[in-house]
Amino acid sequence: MGAGHDHSSAVANAAHRHAGRLWAAFALLAVLMVVEAVAAFTTGSLALLSDAGHMFTDVLGIGMALAAITATRRAGTDPQRTFGLYRLEVLAALANAVLLGAVAVYVLIEAVRRFGEPPEVLAGPMLVVAVLGLLANIVAFALLRAGAKESINLRGAYLEVLGDLLGSLGVIAAALVIAVTDWWWADPLVAVGIGLFILPRTWRLGRAAVRILVQAAPEHLQVTAVHDRLAAVPGVAEVHDLHVWTLTSGMEVASAHLTTDPGVDPAGVLAAARTALHEDFSIDHATLQVEPGASAGVCGKTEW
Description:
This protein is mainly alpha-helical. It is built from nine helices and three strands; from the N terminus they run ααααααααββαβ.
């Protein structure tokens, strides 16, 4: 006997609600990315180039988020995709992490090379473009902030914009130092700071995405606690074949077999178990097989 309460539409709607803001952030950052890239080569600024590269990953990340939202919406019409395409969101987040890490490593290598003989940098144009980049990131940050709480993919884009915002502040500081003191080392120094700031955030995002893809239990849930709570449901004699995983952001999923005491009403056990999962662990998508004690031996246990 099974039961499942699918709240996947709520998760999908959470992403769809923010699609308009994503498009606005995408367009704004794409324009500024081109401006920063051109200015970086014109001024010779590695810090500005690193900020442009970071902004490129912002644009790419938001673009993948939009693609995932579109694919998820369309997947509902395909009966073969019983879970939709929610994992595309997680794959996009993982791709973001990989790309962002690659940019950070490149910036660090180039910055170390420049420390030996830092080239001259045009501080004036560098400052103007960095200020424009800061303003663009502030707007994008505000647009993405709400959605970052509901979606790992949106959170990836949001974190990238946050890092880019701080990076723009660093570029502004480097431009001011160079303009006032002609200390050219400020440019590669800020570039190193941006790279070191990016790497740990990239690691955390990639780790979160990989945990979902390998179907590990959510970090905030203890599987033993879930097991013990189900075992404490009145009428449940044994809990086995318990699995807890994350389908996509905000959608924890569980499945379990519940062996009941003789003469217990299976429907009552099922309802109580679902209520326990919802109230104690916020698991709303659960498939539970209730096995009366007399037929428990029919169930074959897996080695998962």
